[in-house]
Amino acid sequence: MKGYCRVCKVCDGFACAGEVPGMGGLGTASSFKANVSALKEIRFNMRLIHDVTEPDTSVSILGKKLSLPVLAAPIGGVSFNMGGGVSEEDYIRSIIFGCREKGILGCTGDGVPDFIHETALAVIRQADGHGIPFIKPWADRELFEKLEKVKQSKAEIMGMDIDAAGLITLKKMGRPVTPKTVDMLARIIQEASGKFILKGVMTVEDARLAVDAGAHAIVVSNHGGRVLEDTPATAEVLPDIRAAVKGKITILADGGVRTGGDVLKLLALGADAVMIGRPFSVAAVGGLQTGVESYIDKIRTELEQAMVLTGVSSVESVSGTILHHHQ
Question: Which of the following CATH numbers is that of domain 30-322: 3.30.450.20, 3.20.20.70, 3.40.50.1980, 3.40.390.30?
Fold first, then answer.
């Protein structure tokens, strides 16, 4: 990933600030940095007088049973974001099949050129629908054409990252992506077959509108800090969003998740499961499917340890009381 990602010991947005295309955050990377630092500042209440020794890390999300409350976030564009050290196809295959092997789900991205989307759908089809394709909020004709292609991929869940509206990479390529009204979203969701995830919700208002539009899940996400400077961290807005829509829609969250402990923190703040982005890219480019699988194993071990040390028996019953000062 030389020249695109320095594979820092701590992936915090400092070394790659402003590198979009690339792996960085927009501008000073304030939004990317905030995601990481807000999670870091949250502290656990350590509890060891209890009977939790074999915590249950499995979760049911959108009709799928996952062995961990983790999904690989949709990231595409190996050639212009990651240096092209592996092919887009090998990259997507590593994510989708690595996640399938470990009992979780990988998501795929969308972008310019078209082979990003085409390859993603072909790989998901080969994996018997075991993956979640995301499409970007394109202008109408392109959007509905892509919806049709997704239907042929065997995927039972799909998503749209409305937080991609504004992406510099796409603007440079002359392919507009736009925000969507609630009516437009309702039409898209009806047109889609299966469950629909709306990624890029950062306010209570948008979370409520996602429910109104008929989405099955939201991802609390600022697109890894790649679209707008000076947003709050996802961990900061998650509790209010949970208070507003918990029980009405599945809540996923991403942004700055690096360890199993970070996964547990976001669950305690209100997420049903989390998405992890950049670390999966590093694992896939560096070690293909084996790299992806070993990263998932690492997250699992860390999550189990964090659960034992906070007295959490199951990820389905994580409460805010495990966080210091975050009831």
Answer: 3.20.20.70
CA dist 257 and 309 (Å) reads 19
* pLDDT tens figures, 265-289: 999 999 999 999 999 999 999 999 9
Which residues on adjacent β-strands are paired with residue 106?
A: 72
The answer to whether the beta carbons of residues 191 and 148 sit under 8 Å apart is: no
Sign of CA dihedral 27, 143, 72, 282: negative
- What tokens appear for 195 in the block? 């469950």
Instruction: Please state, in angstroms and rounded to a whole number, the distance separating the CA atoms of residues 55 and 301.
Output: 11
The pLDDT value recorded for residue 193 is 85
Instruction: Find out whether 138 and 176 touch, Cβ atoms under 8 Å.
Output: yes
Residue 257: count of CB within 10 angstroms of its CB = 27
Residue whose C-alpha is closest to residue 197's, from 180, 211, 182, 183 = 211
**Listed residue (261, 258, 268) closest to 303, CA to CA:** 261
The whole-angstrom separation of Cα 18 and Cα 151 is: 36
